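Exercise 7b. Backbone tokens:
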């Protein structure tokens, strides 16, 4: 105990010190939590974009990540109307197995024959872009679709729209749609 300080003064000083330290630690913890969240989101997006092409039923059994590209031929068949229509697509350079991706998505069938359907493979130039809120660059727009409720009453399908920026190493949510059927 410092000379001249009562136990009470000493306790008050100790309390003030640990409270200040706790506030600083909480702030660092919050920053770490945010960094971890951002880190996790980016790895989920990149890994999801690498295997989303394999999903037979998009979003049905877990989140499916994909890119979008403008699909003019489909739009022109809609009763002659000029409708902007985008299709889900994937980039071969991000695929977990680009060779297999080019061969097509495996179909589960009851026959022994392995059936495959072609995957919509896009080039980087073709995919739709969005503005990164942080650095304002035009970066890939990515979406994630997931059926989050499956019941007798109603189903819920959620779609998240993100800007995927590798400069900022972020996936920033731009929009979140919730559809009930
Ligand atoms: Zn950015």
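Sequence design result:
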């Amino acid at each position: 105990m410092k000379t001249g300080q009562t136990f009470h003064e000493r306790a008050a000083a100790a309390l003030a010190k640990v409270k200040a330290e706790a506030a600083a630690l909480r702030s660092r913890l919050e920053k770490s939590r945010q960094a971890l969240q951002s880190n996790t989101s980016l790895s989920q997006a990149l890994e999801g974009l690498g295997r989303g092409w394999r999903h037979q039923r998009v979003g049905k059994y877990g989140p499916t990540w994909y890119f979008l590209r403008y699909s003019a031929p489909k739009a022109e068949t809609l009763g002659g109307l000029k409708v902007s229509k985008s299709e889900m697509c994937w980039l071969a350079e991000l695929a977990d197995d680009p060779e297999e991706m080019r061969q097509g998505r495996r179909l589960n069938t009851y026959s022994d024959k392995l059936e495959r359907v072609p995957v919509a493979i896009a080039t980087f130039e073709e995919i739709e872009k969005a503005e990164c809120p942080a650095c304002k660059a035009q970066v890939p727009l990515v979406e994630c679709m997931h059926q989050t409720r499956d019941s007798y009453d109603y189903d819920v399908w959620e779609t998240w729209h993100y800007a995927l920026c590798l400069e900022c190493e972020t996936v920033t949510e731009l929009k979140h749609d919730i559809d009930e059927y």
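Instructor comment: The first strand starts at residue 64 and ends at 70. Residues 7-180 form one domain.
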